[in-house]
């Protein structure tokens, strides 16, 4: 559907804002058209300014004036969090508890629509609380969803000043004087621009251009994980420990059970399963550098005496699981899946189910991919036995979920 005259990018009109949707926006309708509205809350009456008419089925817009505000609306703590500003935060205009309610609504909608699940019944059966839970504020942080981000990426504008990307755009928004409000204090302003920074749980912040330089050590409980500063690690300081604890508790490993950690990074979940007495433990990870780090981290975690068998495979999960007669071609009691945003996908879910695990722990950062993969698990005889969801990314649309699946 093309834009009518006077209704292209930049046009404004009033709308009644409908429900929140996956993607950090709410859904509204204007003259029969769907409009995805950012910076709005469900039930508000707002003036929308259209930012994108490039799709047949919907337009995008920003709420540039709020005519009838929701009681949960707050003034965004960051001066560049609003329309046309930094694209990093989607929900600064909502109180933190309201942000989590919006995320829970998105998760419920994706589980219903893509997962084919009856969310009311899940909640009734205590499979899911229906909530997205807050994490503790990092020590010294101002709280209220600020001061938690331990990985940052600043661009440079034409004058060499630090800047951030606008939403769905290559346009640069200058970093305000107070710096990035969601970053930990050491990363709120870069020493130069462009710059990428990391603040590990041990040691000072490290910066680089293109990628943060050198190596870091992250601590989780008693465990230590060495990795490249530019390597994958959870961004909220409380996230890695929380996810490891949640997955291990959900799987309830028994000593001597075999456990497979897929998309294992530098070995976070494999270490938790080793500590719980699993033997053997195997991990699969596409990044060769991360596999080398996982090998060292897990050797240290396993200890020297009567060390359990640990096997790490570098490569894509679908290829590693597809290798007939290979080390992973056997039954595994427990499987952890922690894929990137695109999710595990049908082929990997089938490969996991073929190993007849007693339980699967699925760590998901995209509720749509999770919903789709849960539907595949259900078709193959695995049902959702538990679901926890966490606000690992306050102020943004993102959430993290840990699903437990068991054989029916
Ligand atoms: C969300 S991270 C999880 C890492 C680790 N579980 C952790 O908690 O630190 C996803 C990991 O999957 C890896 N990855 C992405 N696609 C992959 C694939 N097709 N096969 C294997 N690993 C993959 C990435 O390199 C990354 O380390």
UniProtKB/TrEMBL annotation:
<dbReference type="InterPro" id="IPR010280">
    <property type="entry name" value="U5_MeTrfase_fam"/>
</dbReference>
<dbReference type="InterPro" id="IPR029063">
    <property type="entry name" value="SAM-dependent_MTases_sf"/>
</dbReference>
<dbReference type="InterPro" id="IPR012340">
    <property type="entry name" value="NA-bd_OB-fold"/>
</dbReference>
<comment type="similarity">
    <text>Belongs to the class I-like SAM-binding methyltransferase superfamily. RNA M5U methyltransferase family.</text>
</comment>
<dbReference type="Pfam" id="PF05958">
    <property type="entry name" value="tRNA_U5-meth_tr"/>
</dbReference>
<feature type="binding site">
    <location>
        <position position="263"/>
    </location>
    <ligand>
        <name>S-adenosyl-L-methionine</name>
    </ligand>
</feature>
<feature type="domain" description="TRAM">
    <location>
        <begin position="6"/>
        <end position="65"/>
    </location>
</feature>
<dbReference type="InterPro" id="IPR002792">
    <property type="entry name" value="TRAM_dom"/>
</dbReference>
<feature type="binding site">
    <location>
        <position position="285"/>
    </location>
    <ligand>
        <name>S-adenosyl-L-methionine</name>
    </ligand>
</feature>
<dbReference type="GO" id="GO:0070475">
    <property type="term" value="P:rRNA base methylation"/>
</dbReference>
<protein>
    <submittedName>
        <fullName>tRNA/tmRNA/rRNA uracil-C5-methylase (TrmA/RlmC/RlmD family)</fullName>
    </submittedName>
</protein>
<feature type="active site" description="Nucleophile">
    <location>
        <position position="365"/>
    </location>
</feature>
<keyword id="KW-0489">Methyltransferase</keyword>
<dbReference type="InterPro" id="IPR030391">
    <property type="entry name" value="MeTrfase_TrmA_CS"/>
</dbReference>
<feature type="binding site">
    <location>
        <position position="338"/>
    </location>
    <ligand>
        <name>S-adenosyl-L-methionine</name>
    </ligand>
</feature>
<feature type="binding site">
    <location>
        <position position="234"/>
    </location>
    <ligand>
        <name>S-adenosyl-L-methionine</name>
    </ligand>
</feature>
<dbReference type="GO" id="GO:0070041">
    <property type="term" value="F:rRNA (uridine-C5-)-methyltransferase activity"/>
</dbReference>
<keyword id="KW-0808">Transferase</keyword>
<dbReference type="Pfam" id="PF01938">
    <property type="entry name" value="TRAM"/>
</dbReference>
<keyword id="KW-0949">S-adenosyl-L-methionine</keyword>
């Amino acid at each position: 559907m093309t834009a009518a005259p006077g209704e292209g990018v930049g046009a404004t009109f009033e709308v009644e804002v409908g429900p929140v949707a996956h993607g950090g926006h709410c859904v509204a309708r204007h003259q029969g058209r769907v409009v995805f509205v950012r910076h709005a809350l469900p039930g508000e009456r707002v003036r929308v300014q259209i930012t994108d008419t490039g799709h047949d089925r919907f337009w995008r817009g920003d709420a540039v004036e709020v005519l009838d505000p929701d009681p949960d609306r707050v003034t965004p703590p960051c001066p560049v969090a609003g329309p046309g500003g930094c694209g990093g935060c989607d929900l600064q205009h909502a109180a933190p508890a309201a942000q989590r309610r919006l995320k829970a609504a998105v998760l419920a909608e994706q589980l219903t629509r893509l997962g084919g699940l009856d969310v009311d019944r899940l909640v009734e059966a205590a499979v899911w609380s229906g909530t997205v839970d807050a994490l503790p504020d990092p020590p010294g942080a101002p709280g209220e969803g600020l001061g938690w981000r331990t990985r940052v990426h600043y661009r440079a504008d034409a004058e060499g000043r630090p800047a951030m990307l606008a939403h769905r755009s290559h346009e640069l928004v200058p970093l305000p004087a107070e710096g990035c409000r969601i970053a930990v204090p050491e990363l709120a302003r870069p020493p130069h621009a462009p710059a990428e920074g990391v603040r590990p749980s041990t040691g000072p912040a490290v910066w680089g251009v293109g990628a943060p330089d050198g190596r870091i050590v992250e601590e989780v409980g008693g465990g230590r994980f060495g990795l490249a500063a530019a390597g994958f690690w959870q961004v909220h300081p409380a996230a890695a420990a929380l996810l490891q604890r949640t997955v291990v508790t959900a799987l309830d490993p028994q000593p001597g059970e075999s456990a497979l950690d897929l998309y294992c990074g530098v070995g976070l979940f494999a270490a938790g399963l080793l500590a719980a007495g699993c033997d053997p433990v195997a991990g699969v990870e596409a990044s060769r550098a991360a596999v080398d780090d996982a090998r060292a981290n897990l050797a240290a975690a396993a200890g020297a005496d009567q060390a359990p068998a640990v096997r790490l495979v570098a490569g894509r999960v679908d290829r590693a699981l597809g290798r007939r007669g290979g080390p992973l071609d056997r039954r595994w009691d427990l499987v952890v899946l922690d894929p990137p945003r695109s999710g595990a996908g049908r082929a990997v879910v089938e490969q996991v189910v073929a190993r007849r695990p007693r339980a699967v722990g699925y760590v998901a950062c995209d509720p749509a991919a999770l919903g789709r993969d849960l539907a595949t698990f259900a078709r193959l005889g695995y049902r959702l036995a538990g679901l926890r969801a966490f606000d690992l990314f306050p102020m943004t649309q993102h959430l993290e979920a840990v699903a437990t699946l068991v054989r029916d």
